[in-house]
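Regression check, zinc ion case 59:
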Amino acid sequence: MATQVRACPKCTKLMWVKDEQIQMLDENTISMTCPHCQQTVRFKLVTVGANAAGPKMGH
Ligand SMILES: [Zn+2]
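Current build output:
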């Protein structure tokens, strides 16, 4: 899983979503603590699409 930037749903600031900081709640949902507001926030993984199951391109 690549590092992504998401907007925190609580404080709306951008935060890096890193593998080592997230918890998988289920196969489509991740949870992590926002570094700005320190609240636990959840994101749906929206990986349905052309790139979801395809091979990784480049590095
Ligand atoms: Zn936040």
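Comparison notes: DSSP finds no helices and five strands in the chain. Residues 4-44 form one domain. No diff flagged against the previous build.
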